[in-house]
Design goal:
The protein is of the alpha+beta class. It folds into two domains: 177 residues, no CATH class; 134 residues, no CATH class. Helices cover 44% and strands 25% of the residues. It has eleven helices and twelve strands. Strand 1 and strand 2 form a beta hairpin. It is elongated and about 65 Å long. 29% of the residues are buried. The N terminus is likely disordered.
Length: 318
């Protein structure tokens, strides 16, 4: 019950972006969002040539976004930057991880990296968050009913009103997706690599690491029976990092849709990253597991489990 309450807790995120384009011109961005670890209720992104005071309250930042978005003439380049960053934040779990891990560093790095790769902006990002109260939620809900973003208003005028309900349904489905990912959790063992591995403190969300499935897990047994040479070693992308004051990190991994792996690291250990299959590993197994996408092999396992469950139900009730 306590876990459910934590999952549903919403936080208000204020993000500030200090950037320079390829010509050295200063560009400033701000992000305002209302998120929980599994849902995003509100998101607004704004770029400008004018710097915003970082001590500004979220209420004032909301008013500032409404004022700027309502302007009839805006720099097309700023609008393009807003659209790109908005799509990136809305489609990913960058901000949700702040609510989940109560850690802003990963989100700041993710935003800065996206701005550099996609917007060609050298960026330094800052993120602050605070718990959302009931009256705060009401403010955002009212804003959703009367959006100030002109581009969204124009889109809503061009499309039938029924699309808004469809959008709500899609959002609801989207909020349900992470729940499916947490249906099955597997405790895995990291593959350590003292030479050539990446230190624990340098791991980032999105990195792909090598881990060992526990031999007593149903997935290990199914895959070892169906894949010749399978030794339990798989690659998985990092989806969350939570480090305590003692320096121990709990890292969540995406093994497949509906399957999450968890590893724990402590001290100055180095973990093996995903690379092309090494000769040594190929000799050991006869076939490098890196050649097989992790989602594919886990998809096989999930399919086998579902077929077995249906067969049992058929046998009992038919």
């Amino acid at each position: 019950m306590e876990t459910d309450l934590v999952i549903r807790a919403f936080i208000i995120i204020k993000g500030f972006i200090d950037a320079k384009d390829e010509r050295g011109n200063a560009i400033f961005g701000t992000v305002l969002s209302l998120v929980s670890r599994r849902e995003m209720k509100y998101l607004s992104v704004m770029f400008s040539h004018e710097e915003s005071i970082k001590s500004i309250s979220w209420n004032e930042l909301l008013d500032l976004h409404k004022e700027k978005m309502g302007e009839s003439e805006r720099d097309p380049m700023m609008i393009r930057h807003e659209d790109e960053l908005y799509k990136f934040l809305q489609s990913g779990n960058t901000l949700n991880n702040v609510a989940k891990n109560r850690n802003t560093k990963q989100a700041e790095q993710s935003i800065s990296r996206h701005c550099l790769d996609e917007l060609k902006l050298k960026t330094v990002s800052f993120i602050e968050y605070s718990d959302a109260m009931e009256n705060d939620m009401a403010v955002f809900e009212n804003e959703l009913e009367h959006p100030a973003d002109k581009s969204k208003d124009e889109t809503s005028q061009q499309e039938p009103q029924t699309d808004s309900s469809e959008t709500d349904e899609k959002k609801a489905e989207k909020s349900d997706e992470p729940k499916a990912k947490e249906d099955i959790v597997i405790r895995c063992e990291p593959i350590l690599a003292p030479v050539g591995g990446v230190p624990m403190n340098e791991l980032r969300i999105g990195d792909v690491v090598m881990v060992q499935l526990p031999e007593d897990s149903v997935f290990f047994k199914l895959l070892s029976r169906n894949i010749e040479g399978f030794d339990g070693v798989v690659s998985a992308g990092i989806t969350g990092i939570l480090q305590n004051e003692l320096g121990t990190a709990t890292i969540s991994l995406s093994l497949a849709e509906g399957v999450t792996g968890v590893i724990k690291l402590s001290g100055k250990v180095r973990i093996k990253m995903m690379t092309s299959p090494t000769k040594e590993h190929n000799k050991k197994t006869g076939k490098g597991i890196g050649e097989i996408p992790p989602n594919f092999i886990f998809g096989i396992a999930v399919a086998v489990i579902m077929i077995a469950a249906l067969a049992v139900l058929y046998y009992i009730f038919w």
